[in-house]
Amino acid sequence: MSNETADRMVNTGVASADHLKIQTAEALEEAARKLRKADVSAKGDEVKHILHDVEAKVSRFKSEVGAEYRKIDADYHKRMEPVEHIIIDHPIPSVLIAAGIGALIGMLIFKSRE
User: Fold this and answer.
1) HEC states along the chain?
2) Which residue among 41, 47, 55, 70 is least packed, with the fewest CB closer than 10 Å?
């Protein structure tokens, strides 16, 4: 998976989360407006109705966020599956490559400190 693909997946997830966050905030603001406008002597049923409406909207947004997360997670696993199979099929070369990359990074860090 390329960095561009990973960045695109992250940006899509963040954009969806921002959109749902705005929708949730708007629902809460709407409920606050309704509660402010409600008569002080408003019956408990009216307040319960307003709060139930907000709860339903937040619950819907929560399920949408969960669905979006599951979609991103599934897409990530689908893209990473070939890499996992390569590692499973060739464990020794995979470990040697990882060790080599780690040693290279260590040398670069050590040289940058000098």
Assistant:
1) CCHHHHHHHHHHHHHHHHHHHHHHHHHHHHHHHHHHHCCCCCCHHHHHHHHHHHHHHHHHHHHHHHHHHHHHHHHHHHHHHHHHHHHHHCHHHHHHHHHHHHHHHHHHHHHHHC
2) 41
